[in-house]
Design goal:
The chain is α/β, with parallel strands linked by helices. It folds into two domains: 13-52 and 88-272, Alpha-Beta Barrel (TIM Barrel); 281-346, Type Iii Antifreeze Protein Isoform Hplc 12, CATH 3.90.1210.10. It has helices at residues 29-42, 54-57, 80-87, 91-103, 115-123, 139-146, 161-173, 199-207, 221-228, 255-272, 324-327, and strands spanning 2-4, 7-9, 16-20, 46-51, 107-112, 129-131, 152-155, 179-184, 210-215, 233-237, 292-295, 310-313. The protein is elongated and about 100 Å long. The model has no long low-confidence stretch (mean pLDDT 97).
Length: 348
């Protein structure tokens, strides 16, 4: 079992919901505080930051490969360095954001993108770490994070089974088995058709860890379905209003949507229950509405039961309907009035 501080992360607990702030603060700490407050109000268990600078992510150049050339990308034409400079969360914001989250009773942790970020976050005593999909092949970073002994949440967008295995083995070799993997599709936004959440139970079995979902689709339908497949954690990008703009705003959840996701994922989790057949305690009062065998017309002692005087009707206080054919042609040993439930002791 994995805990983030006092909170259990497994299938016995309500799904753990992470609101990813990313760059939606638009370089305003007041907006960052407002996003955090709204996430707490919407029912998030954690607010997640990203810890990097443009210089720790890439080079300030326009050489080939350092511009986003995919015309379908949200960030088509952007230089990587300027994009990361716009989206990064200033490091001096981290402590006040962590303190504010604590006042809400909400966790605050981050995704480090290099070793200096891990050292910085350790000074702040964050309760957990996230490894982004794009860093799952950065085994030195995974080893560094694993050595902290803190819970590790690793997104698996684009990763092959072999790459996920290497990441998990690296963490375990460093002495850390407190791992949650997140099924993820690294498109922004992602379509339900490309999400393939059927992978969740397979991933749990293959790697022997709990599994959640890092979800870039719109709405909460995919998240609810993931919980029905055993997801223990859902991560969603979060903003105040998509119309406010920002690098990730177009595929981020607004507070009302996140609140709905909190309600519906919890319902899905509650509905899972256990393998169960037969009447539950809650259903016992409904048994009376089953059909059963009743005397439908007044009969005298010695009369024969026929389709006219023996019927299968509600309520369910008589013999089960399966005995209908067996009882036809039998004689009754006493007078019976219409509306009498049939029992074996009234037969001659």
């Amino acid at each position: 079992m994995i805990r983030i501080q006092e909170r259990e992360i497994d299938r016995r607990a309500r799904p753990y919901l992470i609101a990813e702030m990313s760059g939606n603060h638009n370089q305003s700490i007041e907006r960052a505080f407002a996003i955090l407050d709204a996430a707490a109000e919407a029912g998030a268990d954690a607010i997640k930051l990203q810890t990097y600078t443009a210089d720790t992510m890439t080079l300030n150049t326009t050489a080939p490969g350092f511009l986003i050339e995919d015309p379908n990308s949200l960030w088509a034409g952007r230089q990587l360095y300027s994009l990361y400079d716009e989206a990064h969360t200033p490091w001096d914001w981290h402590k006040p954001l962590i303190e504010r989250a604590s006042r809400h009773g909400m966790h605050c942790f981050s995704t480090p993108f290099d070793e200096s970020a891990v050292d910085f976050l350790e000074e702040l005593e964050v309760p957990a770490y996230k490894i982004a999909s794009f860093e799952i092949t950065d085994l030195p970073l995974i080893q560094k994070v694993a050595q902290t002994g803190k819970p590790m949440i690793m997104s698996t967008g684009m990763a092959t089974m072999a790459e996920i295995d290497e990441a998990v083995r690296t963490a375990r070799a460093a002495g850390n088995d407190r791992i949650v993997l997140l099924k993820c599709t690294s498109t922004y936004p992602a379509s339900p058709e490309n999400t393939n959440i059927s992978t969740i139970p397979n991933m749990r079995e293959a790697f022997g860890v709990e599994v959640g979902l890092s979800d870039h689709t719109t709405g909460c339908g995919v998240a609810v379905a993931a919980v029905s497949l055993g997801a223990v954690m859902i991560e969603k990008h979060f903003t105040l209003r998509r119309a406010d703009g920002g690098v990730d705003s177009s595929f981020s959840m607004e507070p009302e949507e996140f609140r709905l996701m909190r309600e519906e994922t919890e319902r899905a989790w509650q509905a899972l229950g256990t393998v169960s057949y037969g009447c539950t305690e809650a259903e016992k009062n409904s048994l009376v509405f089953r059909r059963s065998l009743y005397i439908a017309q007044d009969v005298e002692a010695g009369d024969t039961l026929t389709p006219d005087n023996l019927r299968i009707i509600r309520p369910g206080f008589g013999l089960p309907p399966k005995f209908y054919g067996e009882l036809l042609g039998k004689r009754v040993k006493q007078p019976l009035t219409a509306g009498t439930p049939v029992s074996w002791d009234m037969l001659a």
